[in-house]
Amino acid sequence: MSDPTAHTRATTTDVVVVGAGFAGMYALYRFRQRGLSVQVLEAGDDVGGTWYWNRYPGARCDVPSLEYSFGFSEELEQEWDWPEVFSAQPDILRYANHIADRFDLRANIQFETRVIAVEYDESEKLWRLTTDTDRAFVGKYCVMATGCLSVPNKPDLPGAASFEGLELHTGLWPQEPVDLSSKRVGIIGTGSSGVQAIPELAKLAAELIVFQRTPVYTVPANRKGMRDAVQQEFKDNYRRIREMQQANQGGVSNFRPTLNVNRPDVFDPMAPKRNLIKPLTPEQRRTRVEEKGLGEILSFRDVYTDLEANEIANDLYRDVVRTMVTDAEVAERLLPKDYGIGCKRQVLDRDYYATFNRTNVALVDVREEPIQTINPAGIQTVAGQYDLDVLVYATGFDAMTGALLKVNITGRDGRTLEQKWQHGPVAYLGLQMNGFPNLFTVTGPGSPSVLCNMLVAIEQHVNWIGDCIRHLEVNHLGGIEPTPQAELDWIAHVNEVAEGTMFTAPSCNSWYLGANIPGKPRIFMPYVGGYPRYRERCEQVVANDYEGFQFV
Ligand code: NAP
User: Fold this and answer.
1) Atom of ligand 1 nearest to the CA of 170
2) Does any ligand 1 atom lie closer than 6 A to the CB of residue 62?
3) Closest residue (by CA) to atom 35 of ligand 1?
């Protein structure tokens, strides 16, 4: 229970938004525009969410920046310039700061304020939020803009607390620069964060030891600087591009500049209509990869739907990696063997495999050589001791549900979200939960969220929530929540569309399934049916007078 006296010092607004990442910032902008009073609460000391916390060397986005940008303001689109095609974390954080300044958002954001309890006051029909400060906040509506990948996962390794060197997590990287020169650095984890950090840490540290449990499929990222002509063509076509995003499965327009850039390969009239790997001969497959690079393997459509095609692609991938790593034993350890391409979020890298050819980098396979304990000096495996000055955890996040469960949400009749979700997340459209009236989740479980361009997903969700609140206000409706049946039907649909995809293959263990957190129910959490289908469903629900919801 929260401290009841705190309520006496409570600030009341129409809406309380938790989180000042892109979702919280846009919610504040949009709801204010809708005439609502809004208070945003943020644990960090500035805006940016995931881009505020993930400052590790090498952090960058895997969606092109001209696409990973907001479409709600034409002025914003026109005035902002991206320096690279795929931006690095500092540039994305600068963009977040620009938005905060430009739209005067900071005035309604309370920084350094961590929410520790969110409770529904049934008699008043209000949400009461307790924080780790002496202030509490009350709102008729509560919007959780807490992000999908915001609670860092640190595995419970024996002796971890005894380590006397510097301990870091990629998802909680310090703001001040970390001097790694002359340091022996160890890193645990080879997911997207580890794969991005490893080449950079190898350059900064005297020695780098990579502790790998599961090898990763990773392909080289586009590392082009932004050309003015390309940026201009995007700006000239932004309205069309936003429409194309709305019609694309992953919320990405795939718009290709044509006027100012000579790119004959993009509109090749001879390009095969259905790009499949299976019908090609082994030589043809090799030639395609030699000509177009390792990432070409990902372009074959059958790789994601046909297990035989998937295995052909996996073999081809492994053959190419063997040619990239000088030490054959190291190469063999780096090859993913017991799951297929497409099961996990695709990882993009800059010089990942080449990094293992450096003399100051070593690879430890913790499946062959399990970690026994962490001790004051470093890591002890069954094969020996690795002394370290710095230990970096690149061990991911308690994804999608972690941040929502962490803030202790209690709904009607004292029922907690933890109780409701004990067997996995139960929600309608990833927007709301029965028993939690007027509490909304931005990109919650059961919505496309992490399978979509996040900024597109955020805009759609925030717009939907803003319109819903407006509907309630204009029609003097007290509140809204989904019916239990609508939740069950939606979950059945979410599971049905995920079935038969590589995401849910029995060999697949990903954070999408909660498989990275011991004891977490194994459920495929994001909606894989595609962003347009999902968006249309949300629109249809509204057109049918909020079908599946009840006004309370
Ligand atoms: P992740 O994909 O969950 O990877 C975590 C890594 O830590 C895995 O290699 C995992 O091994 C390892 N690990 C966890 N517990 C371990 C243990 N006890 N012992 C040894 N190894 C352990 O996390 P992430 O790399 O932070 O990425 C998460 C998501 O964030 C990505 O999928 C992506 O969506 C997003 N992200 C995106 C970007 C980008 O835009 N480029 C960059 C970073 C992150 P196992 O596989 O064996 O569990």
Assistant:
1) 26
2) yes
3) 192
**pLDDT tens for residues 362-392?**
999 999 999 999 999 999 999 999 999 999 9
* Backbone Cα Rg of the chain: 24
Would you say 286 and 318 are in contact if contact means Cβ atoms under 8 Å apart? no
CA-nearest residue for atom 19, ligand 1, is 213
Q: What is the largest CA-CA distance in the chain?
A: 74
Q: Are 104 and 33 a contacting pair, CB within 8 Å?
A: no
- Residue to probe by mutation, ligand 1, list 193, 201, 372, most atoms within 8 Å of CB: 193
Q: What is the pLDDT of residues 480-536, one digit of tens each?
A: 999 999 999 999 999 999 988 878 888 888 899 998 999 888 888 999 999 999 999
**Which of 516, 517, 520, 525 most suits a substitution to test ligand 1, by most atoms within 8 Å of the C-beta?**
516
Q: State the Cα–Cα distance between residues 78 and 525, nearest whole angstrom.
A: 35
Residues 248/252/258/260 CA torsion (nearest 10 deg): 160
Q: Is 28 exposed, middle or buried (0-12, 13-18, 19+ CB in 10 A)?
A: buried
Task: Report the 10 Å Cβ neighbour count for 400.
Answer: 29
Give kind and range of the element (H or E) at residue 241.
helix 238-246
Note the Cα 44 to chain centre separation in Å. Answer: 18
CA distance 322 to 354: 11
Distance 395 CA to ligand 1 centre (A): 5
The predicted model scores a pTM of 0.94
Tell me, in angstroms, the distance from the centre of ligand 1 to residue 396's CA: 4
Query: What is the Cα–Cα distance from 104 to 119, expressed in whole angstroms?
Result: 29
Type of residue found at 214 = T
